[in-house]
Amino acid sequence: MKEAEFKSGFVTLIGRTNVGKSTLLNLLVGEKVAAIANKVQTTRTAIKGIVNRPNSQIIFTDTPGIHKPKTKLNETMVETSFTSISDADVVLFLIEATSENIGRGDSIILEKIKEAKRKTILIINKIDLVKREKLLNLIDIYSKEYNFEAVIPISATNSKYKEIILNEIEKNLKPGPAYYDVDEYTDQTLRQLAEETIREKALKLLQDEVPHGIYVEVEKMKQRKNKKGEEIYDIEATIYCLRDSHKGIIIGKNGEMLKRIGRLSRIDMEENFGLKINLKTWVKVKPDWQSNDSIVNKFKLK
To answer: Which of 78, 84, 80 is nearest to 66 (CA)?
Structure first.
């Protein structure tokens, strides 16, 4: 029997904010690559996750959610999402099962997919929230709009859908080389992963009005051995926010909120990096950072 030819390719996850893209990416990759928080704009950059299978390598790009841009940062995020469609071999278009019809945001994404003429798999997430008739109606509405390679209804928190989606993607890839080593699962640096982790914890713990105005920068990251000979990372990070009032909320009474953010971040990083973390965090006010080119450019698709 002839051995299957090795395939590889780039797959973009696209959808509106809060549709579950990052949760799905982490499920497919099997590692915590993308920040997950039930807040708008959790993902700001195009994060890559890598899945190595016996006969393929699939490189995923999780894009920022499509929303109406109000700042230079928001414009960059939306631009990143749309650029990644035309760069993809396969597009995973995520929508919510609770939708009655094709909303404005999904309609814009659909137009971009039509323009790019990319192979697209429609993923309908959160199927546990709707009845079968409603789901079938939604499949019918979308199927009339575009010739999808497949339509897969899922719940992104349920691991049983992982292989179904990966098999469908692999089917639609062309023969090609492995672009990354087989033990890699993301192209993000440890510094970026540390920044993402701290921002995710802040998003989860803070009040609604603060999170979108925060930006985390790791100033120092140094590996050393402690007295017991264990590997340890010293990480120093600054959480930037837009206002003094936000700074007070992030620090919290007697510094309690900042301690919680730091503690949860450290636990997560130790699990992900596989070594001890000594984390120090500060909070600074930078009122105009969302319009600052040197900062916003970090979120552009590289």
So the answer is: 78
Structure tokens at 148: 């999808």
Going along the chain from its start, the domains and CATH numbers come out as: 7-175 (3.40.50.300), 190-299 (3.30.300.20)
Locate 2 and state its tokens: 């002839």
Q: 60: Cβ–Cβ under 8 A, 6 or more apart, which residues?
A: 10, 11, 12, 13, 25, 28, 29, 48, 49, 50, 51
Dump pLDDT digits (tens) for 130-165. 999 999 999 999 999 999 999 999 998 888 999 999
Q: Which amino acid is at 129?
A: L
Angle between the 244-251 and 256-273 helix axes, to the nearest 10 degrees? Answer: 70
pTM for the full predicted model:
0.57
CA gap 165, 151 in Å, rounded = 10
Over residues 67-124, the pLDDT tens digits come to: 444 444 445 444 555 566 777 899 999 999 999 889 988 998 898 889 888 899 999 9
Q: How many angstroms separate the CA atoms of 202 and 110, rounded?
A: 32
Alpha-carbon distance of 8 to 45, in angstroms, equals 23
